[in-house]
């Protein structure tokens, strides 16, 4: 729009409607108010998959462009490097797991979760019918394969103790990420670490009739499986861009929810080596997990009580070595309808009160 037309538009608005001030929670990204294109790099947590469907949808349907953003979606060469690359400023935004973020914060990395991509645990205990594992009590004397991640071993111990099973009676085997392979080959009786919406769906499509139980149904506190994270500095200096990014990604996931089958198309188009049947089914099964349980909450919502409980569990398990204040580990201020920059200095330099996490017995 030319400056002359813009002035004319304001004149008409002032005459007919009166000029109204916009609140800080509003971020107009449409029409004449569309901001100039701004680049943001976004590093996935792993290889592209159904969990990322809304991001690719936002790219394909123009949500990023309408938000004034050019988003560079990247795949990590090493999934373990994601938080390091974000912390060093080599990428703007990353996707990670709630426990990984808490461990990174304990190591002094100034990273903050600002939206949830997957609002509940995907990690599950999975077995096949021949193992006759109908409940956690049936794990006694069995062999369980894990991916070798310390907090997943802690999940297993928590599950066993809650079921009254002595952890010493269960053999753990590190099978890496070949969880389904180990299960199908009979190397293990069950796995803990596979996702119900991926490995679980894969086994179902193979007609193996897997028994799948998410860890939060077995005694592990619930948590957000995947979250968007950035440096605190990024949230301060690029507040508007982050807010627009969240809104655009949220639009992508809303589109996926409206039509899950079509919602998988951009993901598949951008990643030709993916199995279409598996990914479409995984997207369909995952839709509810992309949104908060409370329908009144915006996309990306994170429950602070849940984070506090999970952090306390990590402390109790010795995964966190000391009590850690969580005031600035997460913020919901960049979500639709929420305030901006709570607990941080906004671009205007004003301090806002920090977000407290009730229930956490930390400092």
From TrEMBL:
Pfam families: NMT1 (PF09084)
Keywords: Signal
A Gene Ontology biological process term: thiamine biosynthetic process
Signal peptide: 1-21
Annotated SsuA/THI5-like domain residues: 49-262
Disordered: region residues: 337-363
PANTHER family documented for this protein: 4-AMINO-5-HYDROXYMETHYL-2-METHYLPYRIMIDINE PHOSPHATE SYNTHASE THI11-RELATED, THIAMINE BIOSYNTHESIS PROTEIN HI_0357-RELATED
This protein's name: Hydroxymethylpyrimidine ABC transporter substrate-binding component
Organism, scientific name: Patulibacter medicamentivorans
């Amino acid at each position: 729009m030319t400056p002359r037309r813009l002035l004319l538009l304001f004149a008409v608005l002032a005459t007919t409607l009166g000029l109204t001030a916009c609140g800080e929670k509003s971020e107009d990204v449409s029409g004449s108010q569309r901001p100039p294109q701004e680049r943001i790099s976004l590093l996935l947590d792993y290889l592209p998959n159904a969990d990322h469907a809304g991001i690719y949808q936002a790219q394909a349907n123009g949500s990023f462009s309408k938000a004034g953003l050019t988003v560079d979606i990247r795949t990590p060469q090493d999934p373990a490097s994601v938080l390091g690359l974000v912390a060093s400023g080599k990428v703007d935004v990353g996707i990670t797991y709630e426990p990984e973020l808490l461990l990174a914060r304990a190591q002094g990395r100034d990273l903050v979760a600002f939206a949830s991509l997957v609002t509940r645990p995907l990690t599950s205990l999975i077995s096949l019918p021949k193992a006759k594992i109908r409940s956690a009590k049936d794990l006694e004397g069995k062999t369980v394969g894990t991916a070798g991640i310390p907090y997943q071993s802690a999940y297993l111990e928590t599950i066993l103790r809650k079921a009254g099973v002595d952890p010493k009676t269960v053999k753990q085997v590190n099978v890496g990420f070949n969880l389904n392979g180990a299960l199908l080959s009979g190397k293990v009786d069950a796995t803990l670490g596979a996702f119900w919406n991926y490995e679980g769906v894969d086994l179902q499509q193979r007609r193996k009739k897997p028994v799948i139980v998410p860890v939060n149904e077995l005694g592990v506190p619930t948590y957000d499986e995947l979250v968007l994270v950035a440096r605190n500095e990024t949230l301060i200096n690029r507040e508007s861009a982050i807010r627009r990014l969240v809104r655009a990604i949220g639009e992508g996931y809303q589109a996926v929810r409206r039509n899950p089958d079509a919602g998988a198309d951009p993901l598949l188009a951008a990643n030709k080596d993916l199995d279409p049947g598996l990914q479409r089914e995984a997207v369909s099964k995952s839709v509810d997990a992309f949104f908060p349980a409370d329908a009144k909450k915006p996309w990306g919502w994170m429950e602070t009580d849940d984070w506090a409980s999970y952090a306390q569990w990590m402390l109790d398990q010795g995964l966190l070595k000391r009590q850690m204040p969580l005031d600035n580990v997460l913020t919901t201020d960049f979500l639709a309808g929420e305030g901006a920059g709570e607990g941080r200095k906004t671009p205007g330099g004003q301090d806002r009160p920090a977000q407290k996490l009730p229930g956490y017995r930390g400092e």
